[in-house]
Design goal:
mainly alpha
């Protein structure tokens, strides 16, 4: 490797990449179909060459957005537990999960092709997300906030069902109401006095 290849990116290059990633996430979440790379660059306020310098292909951009969102979900579980009681952390994490699902709207075709080709390891993502849910569940059980008979798989399946019938962008109020109902079911039953 040359010195240029091992050197850390310049601060402005890192800012540009982070901005492109944030804008691409927002554009993918609000799109009905896959937006063009040019539209993403325009929305980010950079030239198409800058976008391609950071993400040479649509697949590299989709991969970066997808991985960034998974990291946000997995680290988000611990961060939320650091700030909120477990039940509140679980409810907030469900919102983050809904945001992640919505982000897939504008990159679905590319994402599915990448999963099918093995470029993205769907099983690994699933394991990471289930571990994040388990982290919150364990804290909730220990605090008495969440039922002990619920599994991470139960919650994941429920979330997928909710966001299938009430996509966040289109029916945010309905999704929120269904998430609140799910949370009611996750709390331990009140003991008779």
């Amino acid at each position: 490797m040359t010195e240029a290849e091992t050197r850390a990116p310049r601060a402005d290059a890192t800012r540009n990449r982070d901005q492109l990633l944030a804008v691409a996430t927002r554009v993918f979440a609000s799109a009905d179909a896959e937006p063009s790379m040019r539209a993403i660059a325009r929305e980010a306020g950079v030239g198409i060459a800058t976008l391609y310098r950071h993400f040479p292909t649509r697949e590299s951009l989709v991969d970066a957005v997808y991985r960034d969102q998974v990291v946000r979900l997995t680290t988000g579980a611990r961060e939320l537990l650091g700030r909120l009681p477990p039940a509140a952390a679980m409810r907030r994490w469900m919102d983050l999960f809904g945001d992640w699902i919505a982000t897939k709207n504008g990159m679905l075709d590319t994402l599915l092709a990448m999963i099918e080709s093995g470029e993205i390891a769907h099983a690994q993502t699933r394991s990471e997300l289930l571990a994040a849910i388990t982290t919150i569940l364990d804290a909730g059980r220990a605090a008495g906030d969440l039922r002990s008979d619920i599994t991470a798989e139960d919650i994941a399946a429920s979330l997928i069902g909710i966001f299938t019938v009430a996509p966040r962008r289109e029916q945010e109020a309905k999704a929120g109401r269904l998430l609140d109902l799910l949370m009611d079911g996750l709390r331990p039953a009140a003991r008779p006095a």
